[in-house]
Amino acid sequence: MHEVSIAYGILEDLQRETKRHGVCQVSRVHVKIGSLREVVPKDVAFAFDVASQGTVAEGAELNIRVVPARGRCDECEIDFDVQTDTSRFGFQCPQCRRIGAELISGKELEIVLIRGTCKDGKPKSRPSEWPRERQAAGYFSLG
Ligand SMILES: [Zn+2]
Fold first, then answer.
1. Rounded distance, CA 83 to CA 36, Å?
2. Residue 66 CA, ligand 1 centroid: distance in Å
3. What is the DSSP letter of 68?
4. Which of 28, 70, 110, 116 could be disulfide-bonded to 23 (CB atoms 3.0-4.6 Å)?
5. pLDDT by residue (tens digit) across 63-95?
6. 116: CA distance to ligand 1 center in Å?
């Protein structure tokens, strides 16, 4: 099932990042998923619940935001909604009908925020020890 592999993908990324940054219990994770991936968010959340048993993310709240798919036509300099995945052929511009417009969003699968603590309830590492660019993007937070 598609949703199961997505859930495992999220979990793998999560385990790698938490290990690297000394988080031993994840309480919440926010994920961005492009609409062209055609997932049912509640099925991903359910699969994630099952997959995360016995891991650093067990019991974590998974928050999924579906990002709408948008294309861009360089000729007309417009952005437009994309309904279906025709990426093999390029996307059609609704204005000039040209095929081959670029996809600017809709295929994302990324973690945007990890919230976690250590097992004793205290954060293991201070936010200042976490990568600056990730902090700025709101990637890690405590509590
Ligand atoms: Zn166009």
1. 8
2. 26
3. P
4. 116
5. 999 999 999 999 999 999 998 887 787 899 999
6. 45
The domains found in the chain, sorted by start residue, are 3-68+107-140 (3.30.2320.50), 69-105 (no CATH)
- For ligand 1, the distance from its centroid to the CA atom of residue 39, given in whole angstroms, is 29
CA triple 41-54-112, angle to 5 deg: 40
53, two tokens: 């048993």
Tell the burial category of 104 from Cβ atoms under 10 Å away from its Cβ (0-12, 13-18, 19+).
middle
Residue 15 identity (one-letter amino acid):
Q
- What pLDDT does 25 receive? 86
Verdict on whether the full-model pTM lies above 0.85: no
Beta-sheet strand order (sheet of 140-142)? 61-67, 25-34, 109-117, 140-142
Q: What angle do CA 115, 121, 122 make, to 5 degrees?
A: 80
